[in-house]
Amino acid sequence: MKIEHPWRNLLQRKYRPHMTMAVMIPFFQQLTGINVIMFYAPVLFNTIGFGSNASLMSAVITGVVNVVATMVSIYGVDKWGRRFLFLEGGFQMLICQAVVAACIGAKFGINGNPGELPKWYAIVVVLFICIYVAGFAWSWGPLGWLVPSEIFPLEIRSAAQSINVSVNMLFTFIVAQIFLTMLCHLKFGLFLFFAFFVVLMSIFVYYFLPETKGIPIEEMGQVWKTHWFWARYVADEDYPIGGGYEMTKGGQGPKNV
């Protein structure tokens, strides 16, 4: 089976939900702030007031938490569903970002000079950053790649996945470039900035992302047809009920067989 014109196919009205997910999921994934925290963990911890050795050790700890928590997603993604992990992870990251912002704000103040951090204070900050990393690692981390792969049909998969990866890399680069400047100017407000986007992405998932657990890719069309919002973009003839599907000539869409 030859797929032709995937980019042209992606512009069809019935693929509006897929296009939206291809852009918004990787966009929100990067606006959690996870990559910059992982990239700059030693710098971040040193800025907060840790010693250099403690900063490096804290960065190693968050890396280990990231790996272990990803294993939870492997177990839970088909047990609890994608939406549950997305929303639970978002809530967990929101709480942790608010707590870290409060801790750093209380110590930094407006002038950004933390002085000497008590040991217990440093442990609390590291603990909540680790919980934040865990929340991402079993939700938006793996699911940001899994869900797009489950919703793109063959005739648009190459184009849609290209957009998905490109948006992810673009915002990884942008956020990484501006992170240190934002940290210097916003201080504890940086975590509130990311928390704001966590709220937005959780609202987006709650209202616009259907559950894909246990749904074969060839049946996703029926999911879009019954969704409260996306149904307006999908006509009955786009995904007829019953039978299998085959590509029409030129990859212009599926037809019932």
CATH architecture: Up-down Bundle
- The overall average pLDDT, rounded, is 85
Distance between the termini: 15 Å
CATH superfamily: MFS general substrate transporter like domains
Task: Describe the protein.
- The protein is an all-alpha fold and about 260 residues long.
- It has a single domain, classed as Up-down Bundle (Growth Hormone, Chain: A).
- It is built from 11 helices and 2 strands; from the N terminus they run H-H-H-H-H-H-H-H-H-H-H-E-E.
- Helix 2 packs parallel to helix 9 and helix 6 packs antiparallel against helix 10.
- The longest helix has about 35 residues.
- It starts with 5 loop residues before the first helix and ends with a strand.
- It is found in: Membrane.
Key terms:
257 residues, mainly alpha, Growth Hormone, Chain: A, two-stranded antiparallel sheet, 11 helices, 2 strands, elongated, disordered C terminus, membrane, SOLUTE CARRIER FAMILY 2 FACILITATED GLUCOSE TRANSPORTER
